[in-house]
Amino acid sequence: MCGIVGYVGEKRAAPLLLDGLRRLEYRGYDSAGLAMITPTEGGGYELNVIRRVGFVAELVKAVPENLAGRAGVGHTRWATHGAVTEANAHPHVDSTGRIAVIHNGIIENFASLRAHLEEEEGVKFRSETDSEVLAHLVRKFYTGDPLEAVRSALAVVTGTWGVAVVFADHADLIIASRNGSPLVVGKGDGETFLASDPHALANYTRSIVYLEDREIVKITREGWEISRLDGRPVSHAIEELGIELGSSEKGSFPHFMLKEIHEQPESLSRCLLGRVVPETGGAKLGGFDLTPREIVAIRRLGILGCGTSFHAGLVGATAMEQLARLPAFAEIASEFRYRNPVISADDLFLAVSQSGETADTLGAIQEAQTKGGRVMGVVNVVGSTIARTCGRGVYVHSGPEIAVASTKAFTSQVAALLVASLMFGRSRMLGPGEGRAFGADLLAVPGRMASWLDANATSHTGPIVDAVELLVNARFVFFLGRGVSAAVAMEGALKLKEVAYIPCMSYPAAEMKHGPIALIDKQTPVVAIVPDDQMRDKTLSNVQEVRARGARVILIHTEGDTEAAQLAEVAIAVPRASALITPLLSVLPLQLFAYRAGLALGRDIDRPRNLAKSVTVE
Ligand code: M6R
Questions:
Q1: What's the chain's average pLDDT?
Q2: Which pLDDT tens digit goes with each residue over 412-459?
Q3: Are residues 308 and 175 in the same domain?
Q4: Is the CB of 498 under 6 A from ligand 1?
Q5: CA 260 to CA 242: how far, in whole Å?
Q6: 390 catalytic, yes or no?
Q7: Does residue 398 have its Cβ closer than 6 Å to ligand 1?
Q8: Residue with CA closest to ligand 1 atom 8
Q9: In this structure, is residue 617 part of a structural domain?
């Protein structure tokens, strides 16, 4: 979603800001802009604001190569209030043109503030955004002290913000504040950086501080001073930005999505490394910091997440029930937070998130915590808001996931939840022999994945190609599965929607006959996920039902299951694994379907329309 970068220092700021914005591109956005504090011929300073609709590349073209100025802010906007236009792009300036604001989040009372500014202050608004009110409010309260002006402006605002403000009167200064939308400051040598995502700073500094909600910071080239919005001073120890595991460059791959699909054997190995303990048949997740006695005392487990992370949670909840006999459920975080859930002290919640910044998931965590529930994170991005809000939890170690469509994070999230289920299981119901067998099967997955990807991912002929041909010509596609494969079906449908924009639907296979089967006609491709598990025969009966209505069946089955394969127009074999582990393998062809269908249809694979990598608004 929206991204913020800022720089104050000795160097020319524009190239650094543009580089930072490029590093934030993966988050999803539709316009970009920057505001530079540039010297004038008269010896003063002015603001130079440049904005463009479209990619950062468009902004780069518009910024003069030698644009002067050693301080400035840059922004990528993902539209919420107002269309995708240059006027709505950030930065927004006040009516004097000497104060510029960039903003992530939503100003909830913007309509009344705007009316007040128009009627009482005679302000002429130039955009449809909620954010523009901030520029005019800062101006209203500005009497020469930038920090106090921003503090006063934010005092009348309700909503969420990561905001950064520059003033032409103060050439070496940025004022920034956070409330519900992340900001991080980074220290260089005679220079200071600001960003909404530490990823933007990784090339420049490793010494960082995460702002907390309702804090405001005065940033100069010498460093920063942080205080609360109510004026109390704050001091945060500088943290070391972790080295990113895995690369955020595309390398020889045409798209990040394809690269990330291929990285899964490696990212999965990283996630499992040292966590499965063959000697005891158990598992160790130090970040959970739970004794066996505490594990036994848990009465119910809730897994919270959105999108792909929710799908991983569905697999995790099933695994917890089966391996640990612990009542478990997965729930979409945005629903959980507003249904006034009943929570007791012996409940444990796991919040699953790749980015660690998803506003809906964060809201659900806060709701669970408010009601006295314990929440632990299952997160990819180290130091992210969700990881810090939970305090305890595990990192899934996928490495940077840049493509908007999540692939390697899903398999690592599933793996981390399976490891947690094994760990909990050994303290509850699972014997050492069963635990050892499950652990061994899990550790074998990266190798099996690698062989499968080698054989299938780049091939120009074969069942993946045949399946994609059916999918790209379809008006509508059905995904079916049962048990953990129902979650895989949901994930496959989500991928095909977001990357290829093909309308599709996933359904637990048996439930389909209660209504959705009416949608099936002779042209409808049905992707059925049918591993050789206890549900296989039942799911094959459902496949027969759609075949009887003329559906064109694409079937994902276990290697060697020729009987299942015979029911399909296109059959795709994946390696054998124990039932709960099958999602790690059966999702691979579905990821490739989405990638290849998107490619065939000329979609913007890594940055699908309307989507953001990190969804920081509700
Ligand atoms: O960063 P998170 O895992 O919390 O993100 C949750 C969803 O927004 C995310 O999984 C989304 O559904 C992906 N685009 C799916 O590919």
A1: 94
A2: 999 999 999 999 999 998 999 999 999 999 999 999 999 999 999 888
A3: no
A4: yes
A5: 20
A6: no
A7: no
A8: 307
A9: no
